[in-house]
Amino acid sequence: MNTSMTSDIPSQRVSGTVTTRSGDALPAGLIVRADDIDMKTESLLGESGLDQSGRYEIRYRPEAYAAAEAGTADVVVRVYDAAGNKVAESDVHFNAPADLHVDLEVDVKVLMTEWERYIGQIDSVRQGVPLSELTDKNVDFLSKELELPLDRVRMVRTAAQNAPGLLAPVFPSADCTNTSEQAGRCAMRAAGR
After folding, report:
1. SS3 assignment, position 170
2. Contact 35, 78 (CB under 8 A)
3. Is 155 contained in some domain?
4. d(CA 156, CA 144)
5. CB atoms < 10 A from the CB of 55, how many?
6. How far is CA 149 from CA 48, 184, 188, in A?
7. Beta-ladder partners of 59
8. Confidence of residue 177 (pLDDT cuts 50, 70, 90)
9. What is the structure's pLDDT at 28?
10. pLDDT tens digits for 100-122?
């Protein structure tokens, strides 16, 4: 009689905590995925949301990786935002132990929208010139200095000219205009993240 013992094999797990480099709160909707990495393929071991403290736990069975392994799973852990964009990734843990602990840090700047990134970068070098008063020469300078697409810098100026109230909630005070890091924090704060 040949019965499989796999149901008796305890579940393996990868767990840890996801934090931000800046210590800010994590945005809602982050998903953590653990994958088994092989020479030519990857296979999903499992995924998890985060609890209120940023902790996750993913349990998986050897059947999830056994086909192409000489030992145990070679695990990589990734964090994805609500839109499915990868925002953090661990190193590969070759022949991972049955109880693997992997903490990850998310860079809040990665979680910013394209709009927030452009405004933050522009704001970091505009030397107090109101966005609505940027000249064509200023726009050209900013595009080259910051290596931003010219049309995007023009878009920011046009938005400031046509809808000044749009930018006020993002940069409500002078401390949001000193550096791109401060601007990023202000933008994240305004976005409720």
Report:
1. coil
2. yes
3. yes
4. 15
5. 14
6. 37, 19, 23
7. 13
8. very low
9. 76
10. 999 999 976 666 677 777 887 88
Asked whether the beta carbons of 91 and 35 are under 8 A apart, the reply is no
> Same domain for 50 and 83?
yes
Distance of alpha carbon 7 from alpha carbon 56, whole angstroms: 24
Q: Please, are residues 127 and 187 in contact by the beta-carbon 8 Å criterion?
A: no
Cα separation, 59 vs 11, in Å, equals 6
Same domain, yes or no: 63 and 138: no
Q: Which residues pair with 56 in a beta bridge?
A: 16
d(Cα 84, Cα 22) in Å, to the nearest integer? 22
User: DSSP 3-state assignment of 112?
Assistant: coil
pLDDT (tens digit per residue) in 45-72:
999 999 989 999 999 988 777 666 677 8
What 8-state DSSP symbol labels residue 59?
E
Specify whether 122 is located in the same domain as 136.
yes
